[in-house]
């Protein structure tokens, strides 16, 4: 299945400072800023456009249960995940499973922008957190 880089997720401690850096220094455009309080997400997210490429800045809203808080505690701030857009998420999940790659089923969800997403088990991707996503409402 064809995959295209969709965005890079970056874990940050100070969302305002990070937005300022990407807008002022990198000449990006802030497209959206929102909070997700869904279990397993618990983050504030800023979506930045950099000449057609997307960056998602992720800041934990709950330092106890947010996966971003756990990530920062274990690895520090920085690149959290790389997201790849696929034509059909359900088919992509089946393809991964047929190839012996595990997905984290509890991460399957749809965000406020209509993006459906799931994460690949990092144990199967040499430790890199990979997101697969599609946009069924746009297709």
From TrEMBL:
GO molecular function: metal ion binding; methylmalonyl-CoA epimerase activity
GO terms under biological process: L-methylmalonyl-CoA metabolic process
Record SUPFAM superfamilies: Glyoxalase/Bleomycin resistance protein/Dihydroxybiphenyl dioxygenase
Domain of life: Bacteria
Keyword Metal-binding: yes
Gene3D superfamilies: 2,3-Dihydroxybiphenyl 1,2-Dioxygenase, domain 1
Keyword Repeat: no
Coiled-coil regions listed: 79-106
InterPro entries: Glyas_Bleomycin-R_OHBP_Dase (IPR029068), MeMalonyl-CoA_epimerase (IPR017515), MMCE/EMCE_epimerase (IPR051785), VOC_core (IPR037523)
Keyword terms: Coiled coil, Metal-binding
Domain VOC: 4-135
Family: Belongs to the methylmalonyl-CoA epimerase family.
PANTHER family: METHYLMALONYL-COA EPIMERASE, METHYLMALONYL-COA EPIMERASE, MITOCHONDRIAL
Protein name: Glyoxalase
Taxonomic path: Bacteria, Bacillati, Bacillota, Bacilli, Bacillales
């Amino acid at each position: 299945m064809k995959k295209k880089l969709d965005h890079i997720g970056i874990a940050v401690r100070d969302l305002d400072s990070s937005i300022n850096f990407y807008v002022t220094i990198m000449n990006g455009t802030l497209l959206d800023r929102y909070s997700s309080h869904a279990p397993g997400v618990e983050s504030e997210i800023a979506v930045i456009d950099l000449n057609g490429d997307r960056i998602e800045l992720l800041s934990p809203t709950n330092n106890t249960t947010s996966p971003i808080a756990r990530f920062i505690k274990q690895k520090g701030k920085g690149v959290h995940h790389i997201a790849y857009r696929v034509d059909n998420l359900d088919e992509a999940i089946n393809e991964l499973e047929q190839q012996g790659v595990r997905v984290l089923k509890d991460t399957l969800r749809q965000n406020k922008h209509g993006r459906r997403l799931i994460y690949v088990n990092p144990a199967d991707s040499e430790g890199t957190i990979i997101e697969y996503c599609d946009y069924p409402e746009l297709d």
